Amino acid sequence: MLSCIKLPAFWLLLNACLHASPWAAFASNCTSEDQQQALVDMYNAWGGPKWRNTEGWLDTTMECMDSGLVLPAYCCWHGIRCCLSSTCSERDRPDIDRCGCEPGLVWDIDLDSNNLEGNFSSLDHSAFACALFGLRISSNKLSGPIGQDFTLHRALGYAELQSNNLQGTLPKGIGEVFSLWLFDLSANLLGGTVPSDMCGPDTKLFFLSIEDNNFSGDLDLAACTKIGYFRGKGNNFSTVFTEAIASLPMLRGVYLDENTLAGIIPEQLFLGFLPQLEELGLYQNKLSGPLPVMKLYSMKYVSLADNRIYGPIPQSWSRAAQPGIFVALETNYLSCCGTNPLSAEELILTKDVLRIDKVYQGVNYSAPLLPPFLELSDELEPVRVYPRQSFRASGFRCPKLRLAGQNEIEPAPGNPADSLQWFLDPSYYMFEKCECEEGLQLVNLTKPGRLPYFECQAPGFGASGESKSWEESHPWAVVIIVVVGCVLFITLLLSLYLWKGTEVVQKLNNLKKRMQGLPTSGPFTAVVTDIQGWTGLCAQYPELSWKVISIHNSILRKARWNNFGSTHETEGDSFTMVFYDAKDAVAFCLQAQQMLGLQQWPSPKEENGDDDHSTPLTSPYAASVSELLSKKSRSNQSFSLLHPLSSSKDRMKRQSMIQEAPTPIDIRVRMGLATGFLCAGETLHGHPTIELAKEVSDAATGGQILMEDSTFDAVKDNLGELGTVDAQGMHLDRLRMRRVFNWPGCFLCRFISPATANSEDAVVLDMGTYTKAGTPDQVPKQAQPPHGTHTNASMIGRPSRSFLPLSKLSPAGLARKPARPHELHLYQVLSAAGAERAKAWGSTLRLKDALPLKDSLSKGYFDAPGTLAAPLGMSKRPADASLPLVTTVFATVEHARVLSSREMRQVERGLLASARTCLDQVQGDGYLCRTFGNLKLMLCFSKPEAALAWSCGMQECMMLRSWPRNALKEPFREMHDQHGNLIFRGPRLKIGICEGRPDSIQPDHLGRADYHGDCVNSAARFMEGSAQGGMIVLEQELAVKAAEAWASMRSSSSNEQATETTLQKSRSCSALQPAHSSYGQLHHQMQQRHASEDGTPRKTSSLQENSSPPPQENVCPSPASAALTSPTDEDKLKAPASSKESPCSEPLYLLQPPQPLPVPTCTPEPVLREGSGSGNQHNLGSIHVLWLGSFHFKGISHTKSMVHILQDKLASRAAKFTPKSLNPIMATLMSQQQPKGPSKSTYLVSLPVIDAELASSPQEQGAKVTSVRFELESGQLDSGGRCMSKLSDTSGRGNLSGPQTQSQEPSQENASSPMSRGETLRHFL
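Above: the chain sequence. Below: its structure as tokens.
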């Protein structure tokens, strides 16, 4: 509509008003300094950093040129335009040429759709009141009131504030803004009434839009004499048209659709008082009465649809019957021939839509169907269907309207201006020439003496003149009744199924298993039980052995009968039982252990003649579980589990005997389970599964239940059923009750949390994977099912496997891995009520031959940090304050999605192998919690320094792996720095580290320790939001804490003296270099970059002062001398004052290694090893802590100060990193400026030695052979263990080439069997 108001006369009028004296009076009140400050305040108040376009903002030093004029810097900020000339010529247009104001003052603010967010009233209008001509800030998120300061503007020409969230009412005195000619407030939340002084005496307001707001009351625009267009759609105006409408001769368009206007249409709208009125929109109101007489020839758009207008169309409306004029009169009560209509008041008060034959009481068939200027054409079109219609329009096809007597005129194709755009309901002309669509028939429903009425219905739907039935009138009610009935029926069936549905099937299966006896073929589960210390008990109490063994046998036989097992063999106190179902075998163990725990065993005094405390041993087991569980501990009980509880008198007698009861014998039974397959023709005697069950049982402690991984695979989905097992057996009715009540709760109110719903399940703990002695060929293998045998895969005996084959990093991880019979993977199962007793055993197992743990990734549940302090099972003890601090690490491969599934499996194996290798280097401190999709790991450490050591080792170890071809291309290609040092190769890990106290530690579905809490979520957000490939990200406070922990691990004075002695001895080796070697030079250069904050060198000891000076001046002390001086805490953590003369600019913290460094001699001894036989190698190395930025992470209230860690050999990576937010949903970079302290700090620590050599493969031509190692400060060992005469170069790559390499003959010990590079790599990885 704006195009229709750009007229030459208007611009002349606007130019005249711009030169008026009021503007000049206020021109001297504005200064560029005030406007610049107002713009800066507006930027800060309206969320400037989040704007879509902030080009130039807050840059006050930039040079701004416009039309040859030098303007203030803010004139070149995005959306800001300034005045260019103080005068306007006759040919200038103020809205374009920016004239008539002081040059340099803000002339226009255009920030449309720029994501502004804030309070609109925070804008300083007084700073722009004298020269601001345009204000366009539409389509943003501004809120608050407009404010009274808005009336200060004296030069404002247009203000576009639509599509925001402005609230409140319009300010009083807004008409004082006399220069305002366009005011758009549509699509806001403004309310109240429109003030009567909307337009002042000298108003220029031409365009006013307040549609889609909450304005109400009467609308009086009599003072707006120059208004041309008014848009008020979507409000609640009650009265608009008054006699003052005649005072608006320039009004051209009025839009008041979707209001609550009621009453009769005023005739003055069409009587010529508005000679320029062209557009009138009154759609969807409550206007009633007949159509007024039309006397306007200027109308081009009339919309009176969806009202309550009745009567025929007057002849005077022929003036609007022209091609190109839009007239919408549908969805009313208009009729050509209806007589005696209802009154306008009745129609207005009626809420429902009346049928057309109910509005008129009679009909005049002699009246013309259409006005004389209209007629029906022969072309039919579908009738449009609306919610409010006086007839049923679906299925009708009625003729189009056309001008009378112009049949020969055909409109041009695609040009609606040549056709008649009139829209009437077919009920107006009594459905003349109307037809029904195919498949429907025209049904006459006319009532006597009323207007004709027709509908299109399906054949046989109803006879003519019949009224609709209840089902026809309310079809939605029928649908609702049917749907509700089906839902109730299905709910009833489901409840019956959960309550009793599977009980019959379960009983039949149990009867079948009980009748079969010992299995002859197929899958089975073996259980071996044994009393711990039975031989010693028999030797100590031979008289009690028969009583104990009889009670023991009775309990086991009863539990075996309840769980449908069969006894294979017995040997003294040991039972070997066989079950068809692994679930029954585990249920047997759980029930038997609880029965044994509740049993009162005989005491030695009973055999000395004290028969008062003896109890029968063969009475039936009749005590209820609730009574048994309510008793005191086992040592204070004096009743037999197999004896019934009789009368209250007996109970009182038993209670009086408790104090005199002797201490019973402690009987504890260990149980082991194994699952296998019995082929046809095989016997159970000597079967590998039976032998494996015995081996598992021998590994258990008294009272413990262990099972191997095949049994775990068979029962891991039935832990809910096993959780219902108590001393009386399995109670599936409890599980059904939980399902019946929990299932609706999950959908209705979600009052039952998953943790509470699963707290009664049986608890399974992963006890680790162990390696058997001997080669895989020497270990007996389990029998496998023959080819073509169909059995349950979960029940087939599968070889032991570690936690890693269950990895879900790739779809292939779900498949079974090759058989590993030389491994033993054990799980422990407990009831929920007795799960806390597992802490007494911990991770201790009674393994024969002291089987070693497979690797550091196969640790058990209790090897995880904090698991011994966390509650298990149904314990209600709070765990927040009792849990220790742990360090959570999340690591993932960046851009892992570009790899194929096959390549991802290969990268997964290398990733897990690297994780295992680096965990071995941190002396076992670390636990792999779980693996996720897309090559992501979660680990937990007890100390943050161990987490940092593992992360640094992973960054280097990932570069030494052999990767598939595509894993060495973009974005994983090999990269070097400017000195040729390798800094990237292969998949790049991004690591996030966070320390905190977890909220809970519980075993997951695989029995692994699963951590929950803010520290876990924070570590994941650090990795996803701020870490980049090759980066280790953590909080600045945690990095300082780890540095202080390393500093506190310095050696004692005796160790320091031993280190000094060994170092002096090492200098006598001819293969070593003096203190100012290449590594020493590199360290001096590193010291120059990281001195104290004031630039002066750090204070050195007498040993440092007497040592050989470095070749350069003003350098920091060498690592060798610093390691011997044992600096104080004040020297480590406090920096001296600054000085400009020294090249050092940042502090260097020299931290002592946990053990003194050994001296490399000319004999091939290994590098520093911590722990005998562990293979852990550590050496002095430098790590750099670099400032990354302040980030705000999702779910974390305060901003985090983030740093990233780089070891010295990978320090060149820092140039490749740019602080940024990788995932805007997870993290937002708030600032890159460090609040305090240096942006880079260096620490000399003891790091793992990563020593491996990678040879270029034949497929990768031109690939560089890279050997990365950490050398000792005064010597180096090659892959064969030989002393090298030269140190690594300053690049730290460890390459020996050119004249610097001096090869030596290997010793006799290694000359016979030198280790090749491939063997070295396999030995390391």
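The chain has a mean pLDDT of 74.
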